[in-house]
Amino acid sequence: MESEALAAAAAFPLTPPRQYLIINNIQKRKNIRDMLLSAAAFGVVEVLVVGQKLLSFDQAMNIEDVLPNFQFPFRITRFATLGECRAHLVAVEPTVTILGIEILHNAKSVNDPDVFAGPTAVMAGNEGSGLSDAQLAICDRFVYIPQYGGGTASLNVTVATRLAIAPSSHLNVGLTRGRRRCPQASVQLSSAMPAPSSSTRHRWSFNFEVEQDFQPGPSWAFPGPGRSQNLHMPATEVAAIETELEKACPHALGEWTSTAITGNDVLSSCLYSSGIVASKAGKLAPVANILVAATMYLFRFIYIEVVSAIPLNGGSYNTMLNTTSKRWAAFVSALAIIAYLATGVVSAVSASDYLQKEVPGLDTIWSATGILTVFAILNVCGLNDSAVVALIIFAVHTLTLIGLVLASVVYAVQHPHIFWSNMGTPFPSLDVEGHDLPGNAATALFFGFSSAMLGVTGFETAANFVEEQAPGTFRKILRNIWYLSSFFNLTLSVLNLCVLPLHVTTANSNVVLAMMASTTVGRWFELWLSIDGFIVLSGSVLTSYVGITGLAKRLAKDRVLPEFFLVENAWRHTSHYIILAYFVVATSLVWILEGNVVMLSSVYSYAFLGLLVLFAVSAMLFKLKRSQMPRETTAPWSACIVGLFMSCMGFWGILMGDPKVSVVFATYLLTVSGLILLMLERLFVLRMIMVVLKTISPSPASDKMRLPLLQSPSEVLGGPAIVKAIKTINEPPIVFFCKHPDLQVLNKAVLYVRRNEHTDNLRIVHVYSRGGAPPAAFHDMVAVLDCMYPKLRIDSVVVEGEFSPSTVHWLSHALNIPTNMMFIRQPDNMDAHKVSMLGVRVITG
Length: 845
Prior knowledge:
Elements: H1 2-11, E1 19-24, H2 29-41, E2 46-50, H3 54-61, E3 75-79, H4 82-92, E4 97-101, E5 108-109, E6 120-123, H5 133-138, E7 141-144, H6 154-165, E8 169-177, E9 180-181, E10 185-189, E11 206-212, E12 228-232, H7 235-247, H8 255-268, H9 270-281, H10 285-309, H11 316-321, H12 326-358, H13 364-380, H14 387-414, H15 416-423, E13 430-432, E14 435-437, H16 441-452, H17 473-499, H18 502-507, H19 512-520, H20 523-557, H21 576-592, H22 597-625, H23 637-655, H24 659-680, H25 682-696, H26 700-705, H27 719-730, E15 734-737, H28 743-756, E16 761-768, H29 778-788, E17 793-800, H30 805-815, E18 822-825, H31 830-836, E19 841-844
Parallel strand pairs: 1-2, 1-6, 2-3, 4-6, 4-7, 5-7, 8-11, 12-17, 15-16, 15-18, 16-17, 18-19
Antiparallel strand pairs: 8-9, 8-10, 13-14
Helix pairs in contact: 2-3, 2-6, 7-30, 8-14, 8-17, 8-20, 9-16, 9-17, 10-16, 10-17, 10-22, 10-23, 12-13, 12-20, 12-21, 12-22, 12-24, 13-20, 13-21, 14-17, 14-19, 14-20, 16-23, 19-20, 22-23, 22-24, 25-27
GO cellular component, one term: membrane
Keywords: Membrane, Methyltransferase, Transferase, Transmembrane, Transmembrane helix
Membrane topology: Multi-pass membrane protein
């Protein structure tokens, strides 16, 4: 082998021009070390170091851990300024050309042979900012390394340097797909290896064919070879779609109508959270609410950053879907379902409590069940959440709370002894894991904070209907909701201590505001507040039905929930299966917890705090993996970390409470998660069923012939039905939009689809400008991937036109693929960002 390699090297003698490497403004020691190793591998004669820190550079040169006793085969010369470096180069090599690696309009391709015709000195820019002005000034030419991100990542610095100092070679690959010969694929690479005793470089050219059998198994497991397709978009159809998009106005909700929809959820929490917080925190309830206000202030900007970048309905689920795997997003969706479930149940039971205040003897459990039944019927009949009605309810409820605040202030001034009496009470004892513990300031704040988070539940509602909001509205909604919730939660917690003794508050925690109204004004105001509370809380039940319907539809379209949830009745065109399922599960929760608002609220807090924790995590992943996506603002890392810590503390506080609540929450979460997991792994389950059937009940023919399972599903009892189900599940295709024919990105897209989606057909689509031509290597690269993954048929599709929302809509109609089953690489400009706003999923960085 060694003699053959030496003979091959002798057959291709090369005497390349002398090369130099300039290292300046490189931050990471690892990058410096990789550059030095590349320079040694590719025959650089001198490395010129300008202004690097001496200690950092010396540490980068220490490579004993990877190459013991290795010595760099070039000179290393240090300079204080770039001007001195250039003067030295010109003195030792008068014809030298300094090449800067940068994407500029006058830059030449790294594959242009004229670039390296004479002596060259290569210089790369900083990992984050590229070449500085001083570096640009000393460069004679610029070389362009194709990159498809918004900036130069730290990997790109070393790879770009390696490509610029290495020679080019060609790899020609011919593929044969079944009986059809594919066009020859030509991919340019840089490949070199230093000779043992000199810097001579060698070039190899490989020519080979790949013969692949595309029928290694049954058609339901191996769909066959991919196809190439050229699509033409008629200008008239595109113009019609653009006109339709301009006429369509999904962003109909303004600032205050949107605030009202969200505010009814958030401010309704005040009706049942005030008493619960007082029972946990005692006289420190206001401090607990201050901590909650500070926490939600941080989450304001976290939500704005993420939702402004991905303005699609779905909240936490949508964020995780665009930053992590589908399984993690599905788990978040399970928490969101529990949150909607708990919202409706807590609101129904609390509304019953306020109604019971005026109708003594009313059974809370049956009343809550009746409320859930009435709104289920109304939703089946087609009653949707009206923004105008929501605004009226919101305005009346806000004015009612303001009236209660004013009346309580007057009462507090007249009866100051109540406040001072409450300040002298001991901290409440707490039930932790079934044991009573004496309270202190720390436990009061800790458990009070956990309970006070219940007062801002519903904060995430605005992110679940962002597609219906006017541009720029989302930021204003969160601002308004934060001010309102912080003001009322804090003010009412203080005034509660000024109006009612703590033991009265604890005994009537379900209807504390009604008690305050009765004490401060009288019976008529108590009646008014009870009616207002009943209406607002009933409105939250309606919102829960509407919200769970939208979320379940989204999950069913994404194939996370069973697709029968998309079925609509012919009478009112409503999703009756979703409504019926929600009603059954919500009613069961009411009866299992016997209408206990405190326990039901704990279940709600579990789900809400779990969503906050995962949203903070997804926001940090979003910063790391989707940094180039346009957004309105950028929340600081400190806000994400502190927000995550505070939400974890709140979750822990709820977790340490009543063990029965934890069991109930875990039961419902595992049930929903189990259903979702079954959907995500249904192909595996079907194959296991086939194996079990073959084992316990083989057909006579299969048992006699001893046929392999995968080759003979028809010979297995029930096999044809299972195969039909597998084919039906795998039938819907997936689209991935490819901007540039980058083999690495395409392979990542294929791996994502294989790991997260049920399909046997991936269509990779490239849109090229009108009058131009598609990249020559595009079809060949797709052909390579098609051969690599025989269980996935990978088609290449080229479309002439502009990549825009109208193009995506046209393709969705032409290919009969919904936009939520279309994927894209991270968009780094506003045009591509508009496409991702249509529901096209971002799957790679």
